[in-house]
Structures are given as structure tokens and as C-alpha cells.
Amino acid sequence: MEASKTPDTTALKHRPLTPLRILRGLICLVIFLSTAFMFMVYFGPAAFLLLRLFSIHYSRKVVSFIFGHWLALWPFLFENINKTKVIFSGENVPPGERALLIANHRTEVDWMYLWDLAFRKGSLGCIKYVLKSSLMKLPILGWGFHVLEFISVERKWEIDESTMRQRLSTFTDPRDPLWLAVFPEGTDFTQQKCEKSQKFSADNGLPILKNVLLPKTKGFHACLETLGNSLDAVYDVTIAYKHQCPFFLDNVFGVDPAEVHIHIRRIPVAEIPTSESEVSAWLMDAFVLKDQLLLDFSSQGHFPRERTEKELSTAKCLVNFTVIVAVTLVFTYLTFFSSFWFKIYIGLSCVSLASATYFSIRPIPVLDYVQAAVFQRKYK
């Protein structure tokens, strides 16, 4: 792969797009969308909206358990069905840590491959992303992003700062497992964006990067400042592809990529500076290192210090797939062939999820609300 080039949609794919692959891909899309919808409308309101009125901690545990099993369908698709090799290198990260992940953004599906790492570390249900707000408007998927507590941003710091800090402040409970993934470049890599980034760097005396864009530092600093004491480490993740960067439909139809390479550096949070200027310099140095890693990858075809992670169990993945499809079939029967009240429930569920997502509603426990009201009245 030529790491510094924009993904070429006309390039020859790793596997040919045969009629069988098209059929299989369409079946996968139907399964993913139908299971996502049924799980969201039947479990979402109770697990996210109702249970949070009593306990945010237990609401998150339930959401993590239910939707972590649904998310496990994707690594199963990537590795067991598409036969994409996921190759890990760098440091091994222990399971159970609360971590902030920073990654380069090569293409629109980078974030999905972090699930392959999270799955192996038992953190699939608690991984959250900072993502652009337009994605929250996607039907069904936007509801899921809200229920999973992803942080949406407008990519304008004067608008995003207060909202982002408020959202981050709700993740400080050390009892709640957390992997928060941030893409400091703010957008996916293209040659045109790279040239614009390089011009800005040259005009401002910053490093000239060829394989990544100049990182935006304010959001990363806000994450560290708000979450710092509750985090164990920062995972510096660098992602590369053989032989070209994939797009979403490449994954669905199984034509690309041949290999995904994920390099990890684990930095204890105590070793990262705290002042904004020092954090900015630290992040810049991290991206200079990413740039060199990707440059070496383009010539050598691998990252340094490759290591072995456990393979996904096909049997366990098949059991998980079977259970999810079976539950979805039961929900489908109840919705279309059972009592009229199930149709009413689905309608109310869709309205509640759409409203919660649109108005960014995250209920707080009733007891917390009462205590806050009493405290406010007492000290008026």
C-alpha cells in the first residue's frame, strides 16, 4: 500500500466482486439492519431511558452487555466470513483498563476495526467514539450511537467545548468500563486534505506530515483534563491496510481489505503532561511517530514488533450470531403477527428513541434529581 495516497476507488480489489459476493453482502446488510432495528426498539428504551432513571451505572452495564453482543457481529464478518487478516503489533494492552484511544483516520471504516481489538480485550460493549454530529441523523444507527453514548461534535471548538466537557464529565465513574476513541485529525485522510495540512504546517513552523493530517489538540486535551484521574492509559493506535484502503461496501461485500495492520503504543496516563501546551506538543510528537510508522509500512509491508493475539472463536461467534438472529425473529413475529399492542410499543419506542437522539436526552437518576433540587432550595 502507498500510505500517503488517497484510496483509489478504481483500483483492482483484493477479491473480485462476484454475483455470489453481491448476494452474500446484501444478505449481511439485511441481517445487520434488521437485528439493529429490533434490538434497538425492544431493548433501547428500557435499558437506556428507563433504567437510567434508577442507576446510570447499571444502565450502562445492561447496554454494554446487550449491544456488545450485537457489535460482535462485525468482527465475525471481517475475520471469519471475509477472511480479512487483522495483524497486531507494538505493545499488548491488558483487559479491563479504562483507556483513551487516539488513532489515525485513513478511511471511513477505521473506527470499525477498533472493534476487533476491543472484542479481544472484553471492551466491545464499552467502546465509545467522538464523531461528527451529522452521523447522529442516520436512521436507526443514529439512535444506536446515542444509546451507546457516543459524543457528537460540530468540529468547531467554540461550539463543541462546553458540550464535549459536559459529556466527558459523565464518564468519570471508575466503576464503568470505558474505551473512548478519538480521531484527532478530525476527518479521513485524502491527498487534497494532506496538501492543505502541509501548507498550514509550513506557514506555522509545524512538522510536515505526509501520511497523516495535522492533529487537532484541543479535544484531546479536554479528554485528558476531564477524564485524566479516572483513566489508566492512552492507547496510541496506528492503522494501515494492504493493499489499499477499504470503504464500507468493500467490507460488506468482502472484496477488501486483504490485511488490516493495527500498531499499539500504551502510555500510562501519569506519563502524559497536563498543561495544554505540553499536551499539544505531546500529541504532535505522537503524530510525527505515526507518520514515520506509515512511511515504513509503505516500504516494508508491516509494522515493527508484530505479535500474536488470540484468534476469534468461530464456534462462539456462530453461537452469538444464532442467538441474535433467533431473538430478532421472535421480535419480528411479535411485531407483525402478534398482538396489536406490540405495534403500539414499536411506534412509541421509535418516537422515544428519535426524540431522545434529536434532543440529546440522557435521563439522570430520580434520586440524584431530588437531591440536587433539595440542595438548591436549602442554599438559596
From TrEMBL:
<dbReference type="InterPro" id="IPR002123">
    <property type="entry name" value="Plipid/glycerol_acylTrfase"/>
</dbReference>
<keyword id="KW-0012">Acyltransferase</keyword>
<comment type="pathway">
    <text>Lipid metabolism.</text>
</comment>
<comment type="similarity">
    <text>Belongs to the 1-acyl-sn-glycerol-3-phosphate acyltransferase family.</text>
</comment>
<keyword id="KW-0472">Membrane</keyword>
<keyword id="KW-0808">Transferase</keyword>
<keyword id="KW-0812">Transmembrane</keyword>
<comment type="pathway">
    <text>Phospholipid metabolism; CDP-diacylglycerol biosynthesis; CDP-diacylglycerol from sn-glycerol 3-phosphate: step 2/3.</text>
</comment>
<dbReference type="GO" id="GO:0003841">
    <property type="term" value="F:1-acylglycerol-3-phosphate O-acyltransferase activity"/>
</dbReference>
<keyword id="KW-1133">Transmembrane helix</keyword>
<dbReference type="GO" id="GO:0012505">
    <property type="term" value="C:endomembrane system"/>
</dbReference>
<feature type="transmembrane region" description="Helical">
    <location>
        <begin position="317"/>
        <end position="336"/>
    </location>
</feature>
<dbReference type="Pfam" id="PF16076">
    <property type="entry name" value="Acyltransf_C"/>
</dbReference>
<feature type="transmembrane region" description="Helical">
    <location>
        <begin position="22"/>
        <end position="42"/>
    </location>
</feature>
<feature type="transmembrane region" description="Helical">
    <location>
        <begin position="62"/>
        <end position="78"/>
    </location>
</feature>
<feature type="domain" description="Phospholipid/glycerol acyltransferase">
    <location>
        <begin position="99"/>
        <end position="221"/>
    </location>
</feature>
<protein>
    <recommendedName>
        <fullName>1-acylglycerol-3-phosphate O-acyltransferase</fullName>
        <ecNumber>2.3.1.51</ecNumber>
    </recommendedName>
</protein>
<dbReference type="Pfam" id="PF01553">
    <property type="entry name" value="Acyltransferase"/>
</dbReference>
<dbReference type="InterPro" id="IPR032098">
    <property type="entry name" value="Acyltransf_C"/>
</dbReference>
<feature type="transmembrane region" description="Helical">
    <location>
        <begin position="342"/>
        <end position="361"/>
    </location>
</feature>
